[in-house]
Amino acid sequence: MLISNAYAQSTGGPFSGDLMAFLPMVAIFVVFYFLLIRPQQKRAKETRAMLDALQKGDEVVTSGGVVGKISKISEGYAEVDIAPNVTITVQRSAISLMLPKGTIKSL
Question: Of 1.25.40, 3.30.300, 2.20.28, 2.30.30, which CATH number belongs to 55-106?
């Protein structure tokens, strides 16, 4: 006749099929976790610890690049002296970096 018989293929072993198709997605997730997610969480934890440790007299840099010394701090805001008789109020989250003591004098 003109139509030939169709036979089933062999399975090829215990690690073929669905498991081998799913393995690359798992590997991509692991790579993303170690290259993107984990470092970002670590950086956020360090920033949160720095913001919690702020106190009066610390020298800081705001996210806008303004350098000053904290004169008053509350739960959500900080007053920063940026020049003699010039004080600005910024959110605590706007403080991006805490400088070592004496840095402002050296500028």
Answer: 2.30.30
